[in-house]
Structures are given as C-alpha cells and as structure tokens.
Write a structure and sequence with these properties.
9 strands, 237 residues, single chain, 4-stranded mixed sheet, alpha+beta
C-alpha cells in the first residue's frame, strides 16, 4: 500500500538471457506472455500495477508499470538494494523481518530484499473474473502436505494447532480479506492435498481477529465438486 492505496505487484522470473536482453525486448516478452486486460481493471479502480521481472540468480531486476494498457519502464538495475529502495515507497521497511514460515519456498528475490530490510509485499493467488471481465472473487490456494485434509481441517479448529496455524498465516489472510473488501467481492480459500490431487477443501476469511475468522465449508470434495460449489457461491454457475 502507498498513502493508503493498494498497489498490485506481479513478479516474473527470467532465465540467463535476461542479463543481456535490452529493456525493450524484455517489455515485449512480458506483454506477449501475459494477458494485460484483466490487470487494466485495477488501474481503472485506482490501483497501481507493477510487474517485477528478475533474473533467476538475482543479477538483474526490471520493474514495469502498467498505464492504461501500456507497460512503461520504472526501474532497471543489477542491484537488489536499488529495488529495495524503490519498493520501500510502497512497503514499510522492516529492519528485522520475521523469519520465513517455509524457508524452502523462498526465492533469491525474497532473500535479498529481506537483507535490505524490505520484505516482498504480501500476495494473493488470483481473482476469478466474470464473463464481463469484472471481479467475482478473490481466490487463495493453500497446499497441505503434512496430513490429510480431514486432519488439517480438525487442526485448524483446535486450540493449540489452530492458533499456531492462524498466527503463521495471519498476514496472508489479511491481504486476501483486504483485497476482497476493496473489490467488494467474496473471497475463497482452497486447501488442496499434496498427496491426493482429487481432494479439495473450500473456505473463506471472515475476519482476522482470531482463528475463528478462518471458516471451512463441509468435507473434502473432488475437483468437479469444488468447481460446482465455488461457481454457485459466487453466482457464476
């Protein structure tokens, strides 16, 4: 957020060719690989939209801003510190950021930004659009690896583990809730079983005052059942 406004950051990782590519070619690659139309909607409702492109080993960083349906160059640097200084205009610096909950998932950009006191802003997985290209729901996916979905659902509502999981993911749920409120659409959390690709559990974020704000709906369902439930609940059936 900047001056009380939301900003949307989409990051993209490039290969080694990014080191020598000129900025025009990189911009063209981004424009050809993404459908920019859904992103323009955020500009219409007052959000700033940026695409952060970085080389896999974090040896180059490029930032493009979306104005109407055009990308403009905001930053082109080989120094993560310069990216951090730019990002600090939107994300409050944190001299001592919290440790990663799942450090193995962290990319080099996460690590180098934290080393410069500016953690990468929180994110959400996506937005479901209607046929009219208007937002219908904010969606967040959460992978469950340690147990079955039935066990995880039980743990989410338990006193000890439920509180632990809630504290670890509170910032994540806050962003999902904030964006859905900002867009005036419902939010949907989809837990999926890493060991069973046919098992899904749906829920939502009602508030982030306590673990009771994370609501789960019924039992695990397969993909077909999940799609039917989600589409019906957000009036896209």
């Amino acid at each position: 957020m900047r001056e009380g406004r939301f900003s949307l950051f989409q990051r993209l990782v490039g290969d080694g060719a990014l080191l020598k590519a000129n900025v025009v070619d990189v911009r063209g690659a981004v424009e050809s690989s993404l459908d920019l139309q859904p992103y323009t909607l955020f500009g219409w409702i007052g959000l700033e939209v940026f695409f952060i492109v970085y080389e896999a080993n974090c040896e180059r960083f490029l930032v493009f801003g979306l104005n109407d349906d055009q990308l403009t160059v905001v930053l082109d640097t080989t120094k993560c510190g310069e990216l951090a200084r730019w990002l600090s205009e939107y994300v409050p610096p944190r001299p001592k950021p919290k440790p990663f909950v799942k450090g193995s998932y962290a990319r080099c950009i996460d690590m180098c930004l934290r080393e410069n006191g500016v953690p990468y802003p929180g994110n959400f997985d996506g937005i479901i659009f209607s046929e009219e290209q208007t937002p219908a729901a904010v969606v967040e996916f959460s992978r469950v690896e340690y147990a079955s979905l039935a066990k995880h659902m039980k743990n989410l509502h338990s006193s000890r583990l439920g509180e632990k999981f809630f504290r670890e993911d509170k910032n994540r749920w806050q962003i999902v809730l904030d964006v859905s409120k900002f867009l005036s659409v419902p939010n949907v959390i989809i837990w999926w079983d890493a060991n069973d690709d046919s098992a899904f559990l749906k829920g939502s974020v009602e508030h982030v005052r306590s673990k009771e704000g994370i609501v789960t709906d019924g039992n695990a369902v397969n993909y077909s059942g999940l799609r039917e439930i989600v589409m019906r609940e957000i009036d896209l059936a």
